[in-house]
Amino acid sequence: MSRVLRPAPIRRGLAAACTALLFVALASGTATGADPTPAPSSSPSTATPSADTGLGGLDPRITAIMRKPDYRNAQWGLLQTDPDDGRVVHSLFPEQFFIPGSTAKLLSVSGPWHTLGADHRFVTPLYAVGERDGATLTGDLDLVAQGDLTMGGRTRPDGTVAYTDLDHTYANDFPGATLTPQNPLAGIDQLARQVRNSGITRVDGDVIVDSRLFLPDPELVPTPTPLIINDNLIDLMTTPGDRPGAAARLDWRPKVAPYEVTSDVQTVAAGKPTAITVTATDGGTRIRLTGTIATGSEPLLRTSPIGDPAGFGRVALIEALERAGVHVTADPSGANPVARLPRDYDGRPRVAAYTSPPYSQYAKLILKVSHNLGANLGICLLAVTAKSDQCPAGFPVLADFLDQAGVDREQAQLMDGRGGNPADRATPQVLVQMLAYWQRTPDARLFREALPILGVDGLLAENCRGCPARGKVFAKTGAAVGGDALNDRLAVGAITIAGYLDKGGGRYDTFYAGVNGASTPGADPTEVLTIANDLAMIAAYLQESSAP
Q: Is 499 in a helix, a strand, or coil?
């Protein structure tokens, strides 16, 4: 693996970050009372789904990993099935609860995918509320947010959604995060041009973002909002100067007033530490970068949260309208005047609308890069389908879908969509059932290829790039990592992986592998990658053993 975590003391934020990410690995849960290295038993090929067949019949390379001294206090889980006939190939504690990490996204993304449909597109309208006299609107332009995850900020010319293998949403926790080249304000700019094309050149009134679709739920972290621009983040890219002592160069996006960004980062000699701190004040609108960056090093990306997404969107749209040739008389720095919103928009002329890519593209983004905001947003969108503005109302919708899909939801417990709540649990069996469901649908290939592909893309891009299983494992990874101050090391609550193994001839086995209760020798976060890579290699060996 080439991805590395930033060496640092144990940090409180590491657990939350790793729970969602871990570029190569799986999650498992804390379990007690089970031997982490059961003795080999008879071949598991005829086992029932609830059987624990031990390590017998497994590739010796897999048992060698599981029996490493590093895992002497850990608990392993494993399940591999053939969804065509239900045969269990390998089984190890399939009905035991494990911490899922981001493998929980297999459940939370499946709900909106089924309920909304793979081809569902979010249409975000802009209404003229007032009286129009020629090119002048006396009244307001109301942007009615619809829960569009990217608002055009990642959309390629062919309509697909762009992503990088290590997403900018992880920039503050993992070095190497990169940006997609698309303009984060692309959807907002498109709306502004449509207003100008409608013949309006002056708005004697205000611009208002209508965010009544659902209420932000602080229990979902990161918290979804009905209007999302650039994942509700300001991107801050620092490039070292030409020589030690020179001021570093800073670029940032999206540039929207009243956000102001300043940098006091200095360039230091090659080999010296790169350490940049981001401080935000005044509701997040005043951002300051301090610290150092080494000469000759790659540009370093950091992010700062947008404190008021609706207010940010309002200012962004006013500025875009001005660029498009539409003057708005309202003060851009003013508050978002939601009290002026009408009860509904019946009879109001729609002067612009932004249409998103299909939901399957958003699901691909969420699964490939483990996009936490998008996974939590799915719960809120399910609530909307139940005609509720309360995000928790999405969980009964998800439960109904799982029942219809033949997935035993009592083998899962979720308090969010990303798999990051301390209460979240899932058995190997429930995740394999979810994967098997998709194999029986017309969207089987679409769903499978939305997952990270071993050695190819997403959070598995850097694993196993030269091994025979490269390109033949499609799997979601997850992790939950925290600190162990008592022993000055990291506590790895969970590393997991679940997905599909290509057996050739258009046949795929479903699988899960995970380890609970592992730990690292020290406090260096890079040591977690060894465990993560072990899980990736288990998946690779399972595939190699399954192929003809």
A: strand
